[in-house]
Design goal:
There is one protein chain. With 269 residues, this protein is α+β, with helices and mostly antiparallel strands. The chain has a single domain, classed as Beta Polymerase, domain 2 (2-Layer Sandwich). It is 36% helix and 23% strand. Helix 4 runs antiparallel to helix 6.
């Protein structure tokens, strides 16, 4: 295998995954939207945030479920805790099969290449009930984080104890991910008329409640050399997640939060 150390090459590979997602969704009449830092990047920079190196999108539940069961070909695939018992995230990842990504702080072994994170927009009919669910999900999140982290690489007595805990939790990683995923599906009020979506976000590791109207329409927006879809209410979405999203963070915070190593499985010509 050949390691890829140029972040620009990694970004191009991620864009390749996103283009494949876009084409698949257009073909099957599915909706997707750029999300999180990728959405900020589109609005503020017309591409990647300069110090960021990943891509996030979101889909409505019905489209997401179709996608995770039908997307894929010789070059690209998708992993989810629903379709792969060895996958430990509560959200899906579409990935490039010609690459391998090693997440240095994670203990699990999975043939997962350069990827795009896919979050779910779930119907939310009862906001108070959703907030109570969030407390339960946070507990599961802590347990899940212990289960996948490789604490052996960190030296301290606390980390020694944490590693002992993670040994017992590790076999439950996929189960915990599924529990977090199912928790977002539970709604005390099963009415067909819901005015909100709830979405788990890596921003603060919490669930956000958003107006359905913000996602009533896809609009194309430039991202690097291409155009992808963003929600018509992108301004409200970003304010809900980030507040003043046009304000740049302090210089010391303008760094990548990932510590992954990426390889070509076979040398690319």
């Amino acid at each position: 295998m050949k390691e890829i150390t140029d972040v620009n090459v990694i970004k191009e590979l991620e864009l390749g995954v996103l283009i494949e997602i876009h084409n698949f969704c257009v073909k099957h009449n599915l909706q997707y939207f750029l999300a999180c830092g990728t959405l900020i990047g589109a609005i503020r920079h017309n591409g990647f945030i300069p110090w960021d190196d990943d891509i996030d999108i979101m889909m409505k539940r019905k489209d997401y479920d179709f996608f995770i069961h039908h997307f894929g070909n010789d070059r690209y695939g998708v992993n989810s805790c629903t379709t792969n018992k060895n996958y430990y995230w509560s959200y899906a990842k579409a990935y490039d099969k010609h690459t391998l990504k090693i997440e240095n702080k994670k203990s699990y072994k999975l043939n997962q290449g350069v990827d795009v994170d896919i979050f779910v927009l779930n119907d939310c009919c009862d906001i108070d009930f959703a907030k109570r669910k969030e407390k339960k999900r946070r507990i599961l999140q802590v347990l899940w984080s212990f289960s996948i982290r490789d604490w052996k690489k960190v030296t301290s007595f606390k980390c020694f104890i944490a590693n002992l805990v993670s040994v017992f939790l590790r076999p439950l990683s996929n189960h915990l991910a599924k529990k977090m995923n199912r928790l977002t599906l539970m709604d005390k009020n099963q009415s067909d008329v819901c005015n909100h979506y709830q979405i788990f976000s890596l921003v603060g590791n919490r669930i956000h409640i958003m107006e359905k109207e913000w996602f009533s329409k896809q609009i194309p927006h430039k991202f690097e050399k291409y155009y992808f879809f963003i929600p018509v209410g992108y301004d409200q979405v970003l304010k809900e997640e980030f507040g003043d999203y046009m304000k740049l963070p302090p210089i010391e915070q303008r760094v990548s939060h990932h510590s992954n190593r990426v390889f070509y499985i076979e040398d690319e010509k």
